[in-house]
């Protein structure tokens, strides 16, 4: 019994990471395709990001003169941290060997580590755009991290633990929590934070290469070849993981809470569906949004921080004892 | 006293001003019709205008102001709701003459006199007779005793009603106050309408103060409007609002229910907003905006306090109908939850403090008082502040019983010292005459708050005496400042010189009012300030009193120096006129009456002594 | 209605009520601010109606309907009128959109800082209302901090916003907060007081609307910063 449990749990973790790593380019392709269709273009197809990655990986690795280890390690750290987060977060199953370590604070710290690694890499190039991008990225990150922490913290109050698995399984067993003001507010705050963290509209335009408005792209402007492929994959995986986390927290139905393989398969399918849906919805929304001017971004993030804080207070003073 | 008489006495101070207000509104409607009818009405009105214009014209007749300025203006005041309302003769002290057996149609209001010899109660009957039937055909026998026809008036033309009608409601308030003053100290508090209205000694004292000050201010109204060159609808709106204002203040004083008290006090804000913005200049619009926003928001905090008190009362097991009843709350205050009551009291002090001109929400006061027409400034400064503070006193009784006296004492003493410091600092740098008086009001309100903080019976009686004395003296000062503003064309202290030489009567009146405000004998404020200081050093927060005395010295010096500058010296235009400008009897009478009353209060409280001490006991706690 | 559903709905209504106050701070367009204020009025009426259903008091339902009409209907309409009176209509040949008139462009405290202040104010309200909740902990009184938070946010809006209309909304937020406090604490004040208060609020808004029109006539705009005639 214990053996099967561990085996299924391990399988769940492996499958989760594999699904995220393989699905991330697909998700990016899907979102671009939705956008293209809505804008009346034919679009390159869902698998285009795969082809891009393959093309980049075949190229020769080039690093700018004068860059150090930070530049070379940045993409690796980004992908590695994201993969660890993908393993920890209860996307498909709450009963995994690592679910005991799936602590909220650890997850946020890992995400922050990836951001910092990339920002350092951007600074390492010594170019104006790299520095500018890094500075903007850190400004946004400084506002986003506390919001994510607070939002998930609000969800953790009814569960009595900051362990993400406990929060998610609590949500499955007591769906009323999710419709409470605290649950709704923290979901809204988390959604805004995810948009900012993954560099989507209205905080950052992932499709732009106009220097003055870039945030994320400015930072990785100097990358080429396999390094660029890693950076792209890392960003796509972050988007996938965060959308998956959002889906797990706000609509946890279908996530396996036991070690049954059938439940796990169902959970993986549902996860893919949920994330695809969220991604499509986001892409559709992006068609109608304009990018905020940079100095309005703190307003948006302060707003989402406030929502998260209200969620925390609400979970104390409304239903809390 | 029968139940009906009680009900009448408690209702009249609210209903009569309301009815008067309605009369002005109705006259507006009637007038619109008349205008549509054509020139007949116009011709009918013309001789009266002149009759009204003459008495108030004295001040304008000087070089610089063309005599033509008032040629048409008094028409508005003249064209009041009509002329001959029976029962419009109502001076303080006299009973309303009435139409015996007038068409008693059952509309609420008053007209005919009660025939009982001892109790000057108002009988219920036709209100504002002028409003309903005033077609100008009523018996015009309303010649004021001792005042003949004016200079320039073509024959004994009856004066337009406006002036007299304006005095009906203050007289009603004063008369009801007097009637209650005869009975309440002996037979205890009375209630009416299922404990909606209630009169105890404190109510009666406040009612008398409101009535007296309102009489002075309303007597000064016609002269003021005549000189302001107000057009007809504006004048009518002015009267309408003034009387609604009086009704709201009476309601605030008489309310037994703390919620109703709040509603009435908020109503005073709404009603006076357009009075402050009466002139529609940039400055007055600004003052009105600040006034409404700050006062409404401040007083909303008081409502929050009231709501919390209601919550505490409901939790203490008091049924819904009585949970805001002041008497019930005061009697059962010991059962209220202390921490909730503490929060509620803090909010109420902040909220009613805003309306009473206490820090930190006092910013509206100098603006509103300086921009409002002088009689309205007088009413606002003289009684509105005190009425709001009287509301605060009601809450203090409850808070003291629930929390012990220490909490409100510290709170009020702190607020008082801060307010006094602000007022003294701004008085020192003041350059505008009306703003100076406004800051002096803040100074006096903080003294009142300090006396309340002291809390001994002596202090509380002194506080009530101070309210009345300040009301009278400040009314005289504001009304005089209105005349000064017209005489000199400015309210800037730097541009006013030699008032005593320029217009001796006016100068003397203003000087006397300021002397009263400075707290010098023989005026009532001397006695009350002495009482507050003595009581404070005996019982109260000595630190606050010591600080207050130092600050008062600064305020005293500032007020005295600025007034001296305005009063003394040669008049500005030295060559052309050596002849001093006389103050018309119409304009002068309220000033003299106010000063006399204030001085009388300083010498003795006479028959009111018992009322005063009982009112002091009420707020001293049970 | 079971107790848990009642609690859940009450919490949702209170959450929406608080959220509306926050969104008012967040927005710049004055007409959107007024619309959000109207939504808050709906949430307030919902709170009153829920309490009425829970306590089986028909009177409270009637009060709820009245409050909904006043605060989600009449007051927003009056304010929108204050926004448009005195300015030429869109179809007017001289129409020229004055951005500074229709938007809160320069608040005393910028929007991000306002939102953070609102967060602090909410925490303050929570701290202050502890004794209130402890006196009688029920689902309704547990939501009392929401009322106090909206009162504080309303006061903050009143102090920091520099457009006449935004100040009006601040005052009304304050008032909404007090009303919801009354409902949550004691199922509303007695009817006569409630009527008086509603009437006073309606008149106050009317007065402010007329003063706004006068201000536009006298100053050429509704910026509070233009009001600097009177100062010491």
TrEMBL record, chain C:
The keyword Translocase does not apply. It is found in: Cell membrane. The chain crosses the membrane at residues 6-27, 34-53, 59-80, 108-128, 140-158, 165-185, 191-211. It is a multi-pass membrane protein. GO terms for cellular component: plasma membrane. InterPro entries: HyfE-like (IPR038730). It comes from the Bacteria. This is Hydrogenase.
